[in-house]
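User: two proteins, same treatment. go.

Assistant:
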Amino acid sequence: MSDAFNAIVAPVPLARQGGPGRGVLSGLRIGVKDNIAVAGVRSTCASAFFVDDHPADRDADVVAALKRAGARITGTLNMAEFAVGVTSQNSVFGGPINPWNAARVPGGSSGGSGVAVAAGLVDAALGTDTGGSIRLPASCCGVVGLRPTAGSVSGVGVFPVSPDFDTVGPLARTVDDVRRVFEVLAGVDATPERARRIAAPSPFVTADVDPAIAAALGDVVRLLGEIGYEIGDSPVPLADTAQDVVYTLIYSDLARIHADRLAEAPERFHGATFERISLGRAITADQRAAAIGDRDRFRAAMDDYFAAVDVVLTPTMPVDVPVVSDDPSVLPISRRMGQLSYPWSLHAGPTLSVPVGFHPESGMPIGAQLTAAPGREALLFDVAGAIQSRTDWHLRRPPGVA
C-alpha cells in the first residue's frame, strides 16, 4: 500500500522504531515528515540535494519525545521539496497520491503525512506547518491536523523554512489522537477546556468561497449552536493583508536559507520549488522590516480579538481539492489554496483543521479551521471533539482502505 500511495520515503529499521512498549503513546504507529530527523535514517527533504546520502546523526527533539512515550516510528514520509509548496507534487520521489482520488493533490507541504494517515499506513504522523503545510493536507485528505502555538514544540532537528513561522505538529484521524501526540510533543496537559464564544466570520478574507464549502461550514455552525456554543460573526481585523505579510517574510527567509544552493546548483531544485524560493531574492530589507511591523500589529490585534472570542471557525481552504496539474507555475494555485491558512500563520496561536464533510461534486473531503489564542489548544480540542462526537466524517475511509 505504501508504494500505491507513494507516501513512505524510508521505512525505519525495527531497532530504531523506538517505543519500549510502555508509555502514553505505547504501540501508536507514527510516521515522520522527511524534513524531521530520525537517527540513522536518510533525511532528504524530498530534494535532489539530499537524496543520495544524508543520514541523520540524531533524532529531532520531537522524535525523541515520541520514542520516550512509547510510540513506534515506522517510516519517513514524502513531502514537497524543502517543505515549499502546497500540492506536494514537487518531490524528487514524485508527488504522494491522495487516496480519495489519485487525480487530486494531497495538499502540502506535509502531503505524505496526510496521505499516510488517511490511507491507514500509520495511526498518526508528524508534519510541519509554516503557511498551512499541516492544515492543508489534513483538509485534502480528510484527517485532523494541528498547527500548534508558535514556539510550543521544539524545532531542533527540523530543516527550516522560516523560523518565525515554522511549527511541528501532529496529524491523525481523531481529535483525541492529535491531542495525545501534541501533549507529548509540547510537554503539556491539553485536556479539552470548554469553549463558550465561537466566531464564524463571513467573509473571513474573501467571499469567493466554493458554495459547497460555505454550506458545509454553515452546517457546522448550526451544529455548534445546537450543542450550546454562543455563535457570533466578529470579522478578523487585518486579515485581508495577512497572506502577503507572511509571503514576504517566508520568501525572504527561504532565499537566505538556500542562498548557497541557489548560487551553486539552481538546476537541482524542482522547478516549482525554484520558482517560489526565487521570489525571496527580490525582497528588500525595507520590505522585510515593513512586513515585521505588519506582523506585530496583526498579533497585537489578535490579542484584543481573542479577549472577546474563544474560538474562530473558518474554512481550511476556499476551494475544492485541486486536480494534479502539469502547469509549471504553481504560484496561482498556491495562493488560492493557502488564502485562508496563511493569515492564521501570522497569528501566534494554534489552529486545528478538522473534517466537516465531503464535496457533493468531487466527493473530496472538506476541512474547517478552528483557531484560538496562544496556548489555548485545549479550547480547539473541545470544539473539534464536539464536532467529531456528533458526526462520522472522520470515520469514513478512502476507497479500498479498510
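Protein 2:
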Amino acid sequence: MLANKRALSAYGSESLDHQVESASPHRLVVMLFDGVIKAINLAKFHLQQGNIAEKGKAITKAIAIVEEGLRISLDKNVGGELAENLDSLYEYAAHQLLMANLRNDETLLDQVLQLLNELKSAWASIDPAAQANTGDAADVAKSILSYGRV
C-alpha cells in the first residue's frame, strides 16, 4: 500500500509539473489561487480537528503562495493601479492568515477564503482564447499580462 501511495504521489507531482510547464501565464495565476484556497481549506480542517501543527503548516503554505506566488508576480510598472491594488489585497490576505494562525481563528480564514475566491473568479472569468477572437491577439495578451510578470 505504501508503494501505491508513493506512486500516486509521484504521478501527481509529475502531472502538476507538466501542467505548470505547459500553462499560460493566465492559467498559472488561476493555479496559484487554487493552491492557496486548497491550503486554507486544509488549515480549516486541521483547526476543526484540533491538529494545530498541521494547521500551522497549511497556513504557512498559503502565506507562501500569496507572498511568493501571487504577490511577487505583480509588476507595478506595467500593471499600474491594478497591480498596486492587488498588492494591497495580497498583503492584507497574508496578514490575516498570519493572525488566523496565531489566534486559531477560523473566521479570519473564512474571510480570506472569500476574498481569494472572489479574486480567483474574476481572474478565471478572463478567457484569453475567447477574447483573441474579438481583437488583435497582441492587444489581448498585453491587457491580460498587464497584471504582472507572470
